[in-house]
Structure formats: structure tokens, C-alpha cells
Specification:
Blueprint (H helix, E strand, L loop, with lengths): L6 E6 L3 H12 L3 E7 L3 H11 L2 E3 L2 H5 L6 E4 L3 H13 L3 E5 L6 H14 L3 E4 L6 H12 L5 E9 L11 H17 L5 E7 L8 E7 L5 E7 L6 E8 L3 E5 L4 E5 L4 E2 L8 H14 L8 H20 L3 E2 L3
Parallel strand pairs: 1-2, 1-4, 2-3, 4-5, 5-6, 7-10
Antiparallel strand pairs: 7-11, 8-9, 8-15, 9-10, 11-12, 12-13, 13-14
Helix pairs in contact: 4-5, 5-9, 7-9
């Protein structure tokens, strides 16, 4: 077992989502937040003063610190790869927000670097830590829904202006690619996608059909056009249907006789996610979401974009 008892973390990127990470790290008992880095010196200084940590504007200067065990990357997607590779080269464990990197080629290289060094790389697929997802997974495994025929994910809402270097597929739908791999226990064998852009540089709407083994099908609807934020997952089986609202974590189970809506205490997925990252380092085991998961999700995203480009079904590599 690793001899470290407290993980010393530096966060790179202190924008909207990075500030959430900083807040959670400052509250976790087995984490010591020691540094914050942002290209905006005023933001870096203000947040560092709030949390009483060291501010940086240079990633390289932060990575040179030998007392930092792990780096959390919350920067634009195109910067993920160079920062993550540099962090590994400096002997740091890495948490990187989704998508892990820009391309599957970069993902394969990062995965190889992590495996070569033995350092942990965890990807920010936060929905894996949504307690509602875990309940849906347990229902499927228990056989309560019968044989599953369809998983339908709807992830829509207005464009988050902070996103500027990827489209809705790699930024938004990628969550659902990962969740469907998780609940079905394997990757899709084929897919067909339609997508386009109405008001953005990259695609801002996508409709994707995923063909899994046997009769299982996944459908993902994602856009930055819908007026209100909706995050739902519906799984249809031969005996029952379960619907999850990701935002409230509520699940509804309907069969031929009744509808049930169990009540549970809401838990913050980001807390559970970053706690798992810390524990994976402390206990020296793989995190629940690995660099390999980040690679697989990117492969699906790239296949979807290619399918839409050629307007044909795409077979996934095994």
C-alpha cells in the first residue's frame, strides 16, 4: 500500500468548473490543496488568497514543485494532452476533465505513458459517480427490468459559453457514451449519427444510434439548442422501464402493474469522484474511471463524427 496519507494537489485551470474542483478539494479530508494555476493572474491570485494556497500562471512552474503528488486539469480540451504528459513526466498523478484529450491518438499515447510510469490517470466522467446511475446499474444486473432492449440518453440545454474548442459530441454526448459502456458492460459494435451546427463553430446538435451486442440499442440525443437543461436516462427492459433524472438523482420504475419512485438522499457526484481519485492514489489501485475509459469514449465520439460526415453506419473496432 502507498505510504502517502494525504494527497497534495495542484489545480490547473480556475474557470467555472475548475473552481468547483478547488472547492471540493479544499473540503476533502485526505486532500491538501496547495496550488492553483490560471493564465489570468488576477483570477489565480484571488482564488489562491481565498483558499490560502500558492498562485501560479505558469504550468511549468507549478509542475516543478516536488511536494505536489497530483495535478487536476480543468483547462480547455486542446491543452489537456500537453499538460497531462508534462505532469506525468514530472511524476504527478493526473485527474483530467473530459474529454480526456482531443483525439484518440493522443489518448493512446497518454494511456501508454501512464502504464509505463505506473501513475494514475483518471478522467472526469462525473456521471459514473451519480448515485442514480449506480442504482440503475444495480437494477439491470439484478434482472428486475428483464432483458434490456434500449437505453435512451437525453443531454440538452443552452450552449455553455465557456466551451469553445470542441463540439457537443466530445463535450456533452461523451458522458453518455461512457455511461452506456458502463451499464451494458461493453462498447458498441456499430453506430449511426446525424449532426450539424446551427450557431456554433463545431456541431451543436447530434442524434446517435449505438448498436450493442444482441438486441441492445443505445440512443443519444445531445444539443446546445434546447431552452432548458435536461439530463435523463431511460432504460427499457422486457419487464420494466427505469428513468433517471441526473440532476435530481431521482429514479422512476414502471412495470405492468405500478409505478415506483424510491426516495434517496442527494449526494454531490463531484465529491464522490474526487474522493475516488484520492483513494486510488492512497491505496494504489485503479480509479473507477481510467485513461482506458477516456480512450474508449473518444473512439465512440470520433466514430459518431465520421458517421455523420459520410452519412453511413460505422462499424466499431473491437
Amino acid at each position: 500500500m502507498n505510504s502517502i496519507r494525504t494527497i497534495r494537489v495542484g489545480v490547473i485551470g480556475a474557470g467555472f468548473w475548475g473552481q468547483n474542483h478547488i472547492r471540493v478539494f479544499s473540503e476533502l479530508g485526505n486532500i491538501e490543496l496547495v496550488a492553483v494555476c490560471d493564465i489570468d493572474p488576477r483570477r489565480s491570485k484571488a482564488i489562491a488568497e481565498k483558499y490560502r494556497v500558492k498562485p501560479y500562471t505558469s504550468v511549468e512552474d507549478l509542475l516543478k514543485r516536488e511536494d505536489i503528488d497530483a495535478i487536476d486539469i480543468c483547462t480547455p480540451t486542446t491543452t489537456h494532452y500537453p499538460i497531462a504528459i508534462a505532469a506525468i513526466e514530472h511524476g504527478k498523478h493526473v485527474f483530467v476533465e473530459k474529454p480526456m484529450v482531443s483525439t484518440s491518438g493522443e489518448a493512446k499515447d497518454l494511456l501508454a505513458k501512464a502504464e509505463e510510469t505506473g501513475l494514475h490517470v483518471m478522467v472526469g466522467f462525473i456521471e459514473r459517480f451519480n448515485p442514480g446511475v449506480q442504482r440503475v446499474k444495480r437494477l439491470i444486473k439484478s434482472g428486475a427490468l428483464g432483458e434490456i432492449v434500449l437505453a435512451f440518453a437525453k443531454r440538452v440545454g443552452r450552449w455553455p459559453e465557456r466551451i469553445g474548442d470542441v463540439g457537443v459530441v466530445k463535450d456533452t454526448a461523451i458522458h453518455d457514451f461512457d455511461i452506456m459502456r458502463f451499464i451494458f458492460d461493453h462498447k458498441p459494435r456499430s453506430l449511426y449519427a446525424r449532426m450539424g451546427r446551427l450557431g456554433h463553430k463545431f456541431e451543436d446538435y447530434a442524434h446517435i444510434v449505438l448498436g450493442f451486442n444482441g438486441i441492445q440499442t443505445g440512443f443519444v440525443e445531445a444539443n446546445w439548442l434546447t431552452p432548458h437543461k435536461i439530463r435523463t436516462l431511460t432504460v427499457t427492459g422486457e419487464d420494466a422501464v427505469v428513468t433517471l433524472d441526473y440532476l435530481t438523482q431521482e429514479i422512476t420504475i414502471e412495470d405492468f402493474e405500478k409505478m415506483m419512485k424510491p426516495t434517496y438522499k442527494w449526494e454531490e457526484p463531484l465529491v464522490l469522484e474526487l474522493k475516488d481519485f484520492a483513494e486510488s492514489i492512497l491505496e494504489d489501485h485503479d480509479p473507477k474511471v481510467t485513461a482506458r475509459d477516456g480512450l474508449r469514449a473518444l473512439e465512440i465520439a470520433e466514430a459518431a463524427i465520421e458517421s455523420a460526415r459520410i452519412n453511413r453506419n460505422v462499424e466499431m473496432k473491437t
